[in-house]
Specification:
- Helices cover 47% and strands 9% of the residues.
- It starts with 5 loop residues before the first helix and ends in a 7-residue tail after the last helix.
- The protein has one domain (6-121).
- With 128 residues, it is mainly alpha-helical.
- It has a 3-stranded antiparallel β-sheet with strand order 1-2-3.
- A hairpin with a 7-residue loop joins strand 1 and strand 2.
- The chain has helices at 6-24, 30-49, 57-72, 117-121; strands at residues 91-93, 101-104, 109-113.
Length: 128
């Protein structure tokens, strides 16, 4: 059995982190999981072109899925920090960097690491 390459390890980890956030938020339906898989395929090519970007793949896949969900369903993940007012989505920071987190820019707080949204958000429903 061959060892798993750093690229494949990063892609599998990123997939698991984003799926954990989708499951925690109750939106990991088959069509949404397909969006994750599409992003993994695209980011595999991207990292093959720029190997130094391997550490950024989790945040990029989270952003890809967030963008795809916005186009199809609405904002995701909704901010669990701001109780009143217009519902708004969290953003991934850094946009291109290691150790990606979900951040509420409105409140100026880091909500959770990508993959750890469940405990921070307490679960929830699909975007608005």
């Amino acid at each position: 059995m061959e060892p798993v390459s750093p690229l494949e390890r990063a892609l599998h980890t990123a997939r698991a982190l984003v799926l954990a956030d989708l499951v925690a938020d109750g939106v990991a339906e088959a069509d949404v999981v397909s969006l994750v898989e599409e992003s993994v395929v695209a980011r595999r090519w991207w990292v093959e072109q720029w190997p130094d970007g391997v550490e950024f793949v989790a945040g990029l896949i989270a952003q890809d899925v967030q963008d795809a969900l916005l186009e199809r369903y609405g904002r995701w993940p909704l901010c669990p920090v701001c109780g009143g007012g217009e519902p708004h989505a969290l953003d991934v920071e850094p946009e291109l960097g290691a150790d990606p987190h979900w951040v509420c820019h409105k409140a100026g707080v880091r909500v959770a690491a990508v993959g750890s949204l469940g405990p921070a958000a307490g679960g929830g429903a699909r975007g608005a």
